[in-house]
Fold these 2 entries.
Entry 1:
Amino acid sequence: MTDQTNQTDRTETGARPVRVRIAPSPTGDPHVGTAYIALFNYAFARHNGGKFLLRIEDTDRERSTKESERAIFEALRWVGLSWDEGPDIGGPFGPYRQSERSDIYRKHADELVAKKAAYHCFCTAQRLTELREKQKAAKSDFGYDGFCRHLPEAEVQAKLKAGAPNVIRLAVPEGETSFNDLVRGEVTFQNSTVDDQVLLKSDGFPTYHLANVVDDHLMQITHVIRAEEWISSTPKHVLLYRAFGWEAPQFVHMPLLRNQDRSKISKRKNPTSLLWYRDQGYLPEALLNFLALMGWSVQEGQDIFNLESMIRDFTLDRVTTSGPVFDLQKLEWLNGVYIRDMAAPELARRVRESALKDQPVDEAFLLRTLPLVRERMKKLTDYVPMTAYLYSETVNPSAQDLVPKKGTPQSASAALTAAADALQGLADWSSPAIEQCARQLAVTLGMKERDLFMSVRVAVTGGPVSPPLFESLELLGREKSVARIRAAIGKLAAG
RNA sequence: GCCCCUGUCGUCCAGCGGUUAGGACGUAAGAUUCUCAAUCUUAAAACCGGAGUUCGAUUCUCCGCAGGGGCGCCA
């Protein structure tokens, strides 16, 4: 068993120390997909005693923002996946922000041109747009038509000298390119279907393709674990590694998270912002557990496990390749499981920070309320509405709710009056004593317990659905409890 | 249009040539119960289709079909 594991590890990881990375681009809200991919990279790195790094791919000057970058850090920290090297903490292979590495890319792009593996292209954006439209109309293949690829050298030099705006494109050779995806097997592309991709934009910034290959090599990345959407650009990357004379890393393409309709997950059809999940009161450990479930499984089959055990058990051969539908209902269930299993003080802390937004709270009281609601909570934020009646001065039940199904306002009123009187005179204000008193009262009144209790419940909590009644009364205190019952009687009398 | 990936209950996973095709979420019914939850029990629910390989295919191969992704000076 151990031997087999070691063998698998050896073929999966090779000789070099494992180094993996996530490379989010700081545009918009931090995405669940980022956490999803981060999780698998993290688990793989930790399982193999390797490094997990964070690199910010901010080469799109139009869309990248510092704010978004900060949000990525914040979200990743919240979720609990810590990186060993990154823009905020540095590391031996920095800088880890691509906008700070421009000259590196420029140099490498020039090297490619010198090697004839890339070429300058002077086509205008307008010509390219027209080209695409033509191709679309003709239903022909898409992609750059190679117009500038065979410009005479003298002309290229003249244009460069004249300062003509240009980009550098990859000169895709003839033949075919394949790579071995560690979970999908060999994937092959005819080079004729691979575009002469732009590597260096006219603003001097690299595209993803160049930057990611150069950085992965320079940062000694051994395994590229990324989303499925990258499969079709992988041949470009392989071609780049080859052109540079570098060894390519191993590739693993994880499936894409899906909306209910199976399209790639999107914010129009599904919450995708990690901060949304945080603000809704999901626990990071539940989210991680849930994310792990869609793409990986434990040998023994259990579906509740923590990060630590995932790291221990994680191997690539149990990674799935089919696109999982993001099922919020299952996440909710899992979240509830974690809430129920959490130690009380810890849960109190989370509730305070999340649901209570760090408002000043009576810690002791919070701790006392938790047992009444924790097994009913699916999200941390559920705490607030579920316990509102315990914090408010009064409640506002409807007259209709106060009357049991087969009762009348008069009978309900009589029952509540008796209850108020009994509770008022109760010697011991504790939940067992209150319960005993209430049950006795039902007998005395000749009522069904559930009917009596329901009237009291509505009177005291404000509605027909609530945490356990007697514990609620105890927490609320005699004064408030009785006052609420009397107020309800008044309400019934009023009509 | 071209290329690539994927295809087991509604959903997420298990299965890795021979199984009564298993678990979880959800759903339904019941038990418990002061309501709602939680908990427990039970039930319904799936191998995309067709060829081939084989004594035997959910499992291997091929062809269809379906879903998804890609085809940007975005990542």
Entry 2:
Amino acid sequence: MADSSLGNVSVSSTPLERFEEFLQSRGKRMTRPQRLLIDHVFRQHSHFDVDMLLDELPQRSDSDHVGRATVYRTLTKFVEAGLLRAFTLDGRTVYEHDYGYPQHDHLHCTECQRLIEFQSDELIRLRDEVAHKNNFRVSGHRFIISGICHDCVQAKRRTKRKVDLV
Amino acid sequence: MADSSLGNVSVSSTPLERFEEFLQSRGKRMTRPQRLLIDHVFRQHSHFDVDMLLDELPQRSDSDHVGRATVYRTLTKFVEAGLLRAFTLDGRTVYEHDYGYPQHDHLHCTECQRLIEFQSDELIRLRDEVAHKNNFRVSGHRFIISGICHDCVQAKRRTKRKVDLV
DNA sequence: TTCTGTGCAAAGGATTTGCATAGAC
DNA sequence: GTCTATGCAAATCCTTTGCACAGAA
């Protein structure tokens, strides 16, 4: 679903390794469900929410099944560990890779729900400038441009033409 | 709660008048609860959510009391009428004046929850440029800078100093 | 009189929590 | 063994809906 045209950044360790360090530093434990989730989530770069993840994972009958509450709890840990980034879209929490992935913002197509990534140093500069003017200590930001993507505009044109002909 | 340093824009009619036009154009009716809400909401410029509004309005015992569902339904109408703008913050819907108020974005203090407004033409330019590069038809955007406001940084310093002395 | 709006309670959707048990260290 | 993690169901939070009744036009 994501347009991952930003390329990857080389990192010193894998998400799994990084998560293990995170757990150790807090005296927490590595478990089978957590390993399953990390494997699945980092298999490909994409945006996802809890339900999408649950649909893709083994069903309740399977021994590898992970409960919904565990998914929520584990994703929260991943965010704390800096592995994932989370943001809200239409009332649901959306997750995406953070660790080893460059900072970026999104274009959100309100038609097909696709999230297109883009990177802008100028935006960061502008953000910091605004914050400075307001004596504000920045910790982060959220910038989502909404509208209709190229594909959907095309699709609408086609539909419209058909209708016009009838 | 809002820092309304952006000044007002002169408008041809009051929110109430505008809302009446809106209702008429759709064959809908003006009622007492709607009038009460418009009066209250436009008494002062501020950011608010449904619960804050409900707390400020007359209680259930009063004849002027407005039910929770009505508040939700009416605020939705105000947004449709262009009177209010709505956005989501930490899972709850926050409303602010739109009609007669200039376009702007926010700095959000994660400490005191305050929303500070700022206006940037450069941001709009940057947004449109990014959209154009991606063949994207913009309909709007959401930009929230999070961090800690000046007052809260000061407060923290004071607390910290006290602690250090003990 | 005819519909739209209101209030209340119930329903919904997403996420969190309580608790007994499984399992990591 | 001890203490964290899991699964399930129940609970929460915010918002929407169903329905009978009130009240604009």
